[in-house]
Structures are given as structure tokens and as C-alpha cells.
């Protein structure tokens, strides 16, 4: 399982981000100050470190600079309220892999994390496909059309957006935090009962009439589109 280090001194933000990353299938260690963050970064193995800049004890710049001097090659994503161009350039020159300015949507953070973790796996400049298929389900983003076999699915815009989100990452659980932000543009802390309602409606059209079920609930985490034996 992918192991992430999160160094964030704001308890609410740290809990929110850690929860979302764990729901996305990652292991998360949280440090709430600079010295603890640096110690963990230098003594444990992580796939990625997410660092705030303004931290008690040691700031994020110092953590990264010290880690790089110690030959640590752990990828680093800065998350900070400091949005000056000079700050971004400084972070990247120190060896950061990306820089995300607060406030940001959790889905953007998760996308940045996944890009860093998968960097080098895809050919540069590869366009995102517009047509997806899973078993007998096809979805054409450009034509806004979905079908199971020869049956066209009559989906509302939100149902289509939800299905598109899921089919782009088949077999990968999408946390409620990501679904809420990507499809409804609302925070995970908001009332997310609307997600469950639309999931039920989508399942009624997508799965109920067919023997092979594709949309599955991962209890307490989110939803996944996949073929199960």
C-alpha cells in the first residue's frame, strides 16, 4: 500500500486530508511540526511527502533542503497559503515535485498526488481518451452517451458525470470526498446524502436490468466500478 507522509500543523486540515487519502487506499503518517516531519522523512520510507510551508519548529523549505542534502529522493508536494510566484519558484528550486496553493479542492490534491506517484508511467502529451469501456458498458464523453450492450442508458447530467468519474478509473475506489467535489463541487463535510441518492438511481439504470453488476459500494469508503467474479 502506498505510504504518504503528511506534515501539517492545523489539526482540522490534517485530519481532513489524511482521511481522504486513506479512503483513496493510501497509508498516511501525520506529523504536526517541522522537526517531527523531518525526522520521519529521513528515517522512514515514503512514496510521497506532503509538506506545509509554515510549520512550528522548522518550515517546509528547511525540511526539504535538509532532506535533499541528506540524499533523500522522496518526492515532495508543497501545500501552502503562500501563493507568490517567488515562493513557488523557491520550492521547486529546492527540489519539490509540485506546489499547491491553499485553499484547494481535495480532488485536486488527490490528482496531484496520483500524477507524482505515476510520473513516468505515461507517455508525455498523451491525450485523455473520450471513449471508455468496461465489460458491455461503453461511455462516450464527447457524445455524452452511455450504453450497456445495445441498450442506451438514459442518464441525467449528474448521473453521467458520476459514471464518467468511475469508469475513468475502473477498479479504483473513489472516496466520497472526491465524488462530492468532482460531481457536485461541494466539500466532503457537506451533507453527502445526495451522493447515495444518485448512486441508487444510477445503479437502477446501470445494473438492475442486467445480470453482471458493475457498480459496487465499498462500505465506509466510497464506490468502485469493476467486474467481480
TrEMBL record:
Domain (OmpR/PhoB-type) ranges: 129-227
- GO terms for biological process, alphabetical: regulation of DNA-templated transcription
Which classification does the entry list for the species? Bacteria, Pseudomonadati, Pseudomonadota, Betaproteobacteria, Burkholderiales
Task: Name the DNA-binding segment ranges.
Answer: 129-227
The molecular function terms of the Gene Ontology recorded here are:
phosphorelay response regulator activity; transcription cis-regulatory region binding
Q: Which Pfam family is one of this chain's hits? A: Response_reg
**What GO cellular component entries does it have?**
cytosol; protein-DNA complex
Q: Write the record's keywords in alphabetical order, separated by commas.
A: DNA-binding, Phosphoprotein, Transcription, Transcription regulation, Two-component regulatory system
The source's domain of life comes to Bacteria
Q: Where is the Response regulatory domain?
A: 3-117
The name this protein goes by in its record: Heavy metal response regulator transcription factor
Annotated organism of origin: Massilia cellulosiltytica
Modified positions (4-aspartylphosphate) are 52
Q: Can the keyword Cytoplasm be found in this entry's annotation?
A: no
Amino acid at each position: 500500500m502506498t505510504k504518504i507522509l503528511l506534515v501539517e500543523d492545523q489539526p482540522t486540515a490534517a485530519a481532513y486530508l489524511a482521511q481522504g487519502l486513506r479512503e483513496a487506499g493510501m497509508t498516511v503518517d501525520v506529523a504536526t511540526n517541522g522537526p517531527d516531519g523531518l525526522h520521519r522523512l529521513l528515517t522512514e520510507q515514503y512514496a510521497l511527502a506532503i509538506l506545509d510551508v509554515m510549520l512550528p519548529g522548522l518550515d517546509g523549505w528547511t525540511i526539504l533542503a535538509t532532506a535533499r542534502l541528506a540524499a533523500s529522493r522522496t518526492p515532495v508536494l508543497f501545500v501552502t497559503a503562500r501563493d507568490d510566484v517567488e515562493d513557488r519558484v523557491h520550492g521547486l528550486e529546492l527540489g519539490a515535485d509540485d506546489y499547491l496553493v491553499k485553499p484547494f479542492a481535495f480532488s485536486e490534491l488527490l490528482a496531484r498526488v496520483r500524477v507524482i506517484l505515476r510520473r513516468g508511467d505515461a507517455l508525455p502529451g498523451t491525450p485523455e481518451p473520450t471513449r471508455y469501456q468496461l465489460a458491455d458498458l461503453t461511455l462516450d464523453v464527447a457524445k455524452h452517451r452511455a450504453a450497456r450492450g445495445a441498450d442506451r442508458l438514459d442518464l441525467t447530467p449528474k448521473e453521467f458525470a458520476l459514471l464518467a468519474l468511475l469508469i475513468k478509473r475502473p477498479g479504483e475506489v473513489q472516496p466520497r470526498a472526491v465524488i462530492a467535489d468532482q460531481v457536485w463541487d461541494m466539500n466532503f463535510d457537506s451533507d453527502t446524502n445526495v451522493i447515495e441518492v444518485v448512486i441508487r438511481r444510477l445503479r437502477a439504470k446501470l445494473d438492475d436490468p442486467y445480470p453482471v453488476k458493475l457498480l459496487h459500494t465499498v462500505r465506509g469508503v466510497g464506490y468502485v466500478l469493476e467486474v467481480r467474479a
